[in-house]
Amino acid sequence: METPQFNNDEDFFAWTFQKISEAITNLTQRLEQVEEGLQKIPPPGPDMVKYKIPGNEHYSNLTEIFNVSFCRISEINSRMDDINQKLDIDRIGLHSDNALDNMINIRISDQLEDINQRLNKIESKLGI
To answer: How many other CB atoms are found less than 10 A from the CB of residue 35?
Structure first.
């Protein structure tokens, strides 16, 4: 923009002050926009991370996410303890590496004992 021609100093100073006033108003508006934008940025901390936990209506911050995660892990551990108690795992030896082998051996030995008792009865009846 070119500077217009003025007839006297008063017109020049009026025009100059008007342009300075417009520049200050423009800078003030821009500063307000920058401040408004900065207010939308969360401060460092748990609010910097937002996640919508499945089943929730709102977004949770990092602290809430950890609380929910640890509560669910604790619930799962509690359920597993309940299941272990119901199964009485220690009694049947499932805690060992050869748990399946142990169970099979117990079943086979029970069956062999039954067969052995039946054979003894048959032998005694036959007189052998």
So the answer is: 9
Q: Which two tokens stand for residue 127?
A: 């007189």
Instruction: Please write the tens of the pLDDT for every residue from 1-18.
Output: 677 888 898 999 999 999
- Decide which of 98 and 55 is more confident: 55
Q: Do residue 81 and residue 70 come from a single domain?
A: yes
Please give the residue that has the higher pLDDT: either 90 or 43.
43
Q: Cα–Cα distance between 24 and 28 in angstroms, integer?
A: 6
Q: Domains in the chain: how many in total?
A: 3
Whether this prediction's pTM lies above 0.85 is answered by no
Contact criterion met (CB below 8 Å) for 5 and 15: no
Domain that holds residue 120: 97-128
> What are the DSSP calls for 6-22, one per residue?
-SSHHHHHHHHHHHHHH
